[in-house]
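Hi support team,

I've been running sequence recovery on a batch of backbones for a student project. Most finish fine, but this one hangs at about 90% for roughly twenty minutes before it completes. I'm not sure whether the input is malformed or the queue is just slow. I've pasted the structure tokens below so you can try to reproduce it. Let me know if you need the job ID as well.

Thanks,
M.K.
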């Protein structure tokens, strides 16, 4: 996919955009930009593989729902993430035309990306980029969601068969809502960090 074309499309939709050849370079950039802040995470294999949680934790007040502090659980920590100054997440799909697509089961990741923070960072690797919005939405539902369900050990049809969405009624279904970001949200700084490597789902 064409990162330059995608970056220009994102800029036209109001986002600040930074491009990096490697995840290491992107992690170093974010670690330098985010200092002395309260930071919330949305669950992301991309961000986990970059070790951003560990890096930022050394000089920020960091909250991650998958790593709750002693005496706290997932839901309590997820609520804490909604009130931080900075929020970090990835995306399930990104169109070259600039639309970002995310699917969520619990809603904390999507909620955190929409309102309430000083700045939101979308960290997106090249394998998430698709030529069109329709293909990005298809990818989110039929590629990213099954792989994420399998990652969490859920026994949904898509995770078991590893092929596509079955629009199931499983209580472990992780695709409860889908959001399309047509442009940057009003009154919130939003930056898309593009990485020219394949990462996450």
């Amino acid at each position: 996919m064409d990162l330059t074309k995608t970056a220009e499309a994102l800029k036209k939709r109001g986002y600040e955009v930074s491009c990096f050849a490697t995840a290491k370079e992107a992690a170093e950039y974010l670690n330098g930009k985010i200092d002395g802040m309260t930071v919330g995470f949305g669950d992301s294999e991309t961000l986990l593989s970059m070790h951003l949680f560990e890096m930022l934790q050394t000089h920020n007040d960091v909250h991650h729902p998958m790593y709750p502090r002693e005496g706290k659980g997932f839901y309590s920590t997820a609520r804490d993430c909604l009130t931080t100054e900075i929020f970090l997440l990835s995306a399930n799909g990104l169109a070259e035309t600039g639309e970002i697509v995310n699917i969520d089961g619990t809603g904390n990741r999507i909620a955190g990306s929409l309102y309430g923070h000083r700045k939101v960072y979308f960290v997106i690797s090249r394998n998430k980029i698709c030529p069109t919005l329709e293909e990005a939405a298809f990818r989110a539902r039929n590629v990213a969601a099954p792989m994420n369900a399998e990652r969490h050990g859920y026994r949904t049809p898509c995770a078991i068969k590893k092929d596509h969405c079955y629009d199931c009624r499983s209580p472990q279904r992780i695709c409860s809502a889908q959001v399309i970001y047509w442009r940057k949200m009003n009154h919130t700084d939003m930056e898309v960090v593009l990485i020219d490597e394949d990462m996450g789902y």
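--
Follow-up from support: It reproduced on our side and the slowdown came from queue contention, not your input. The longest helix spans residues 133-151. No action needed from you.
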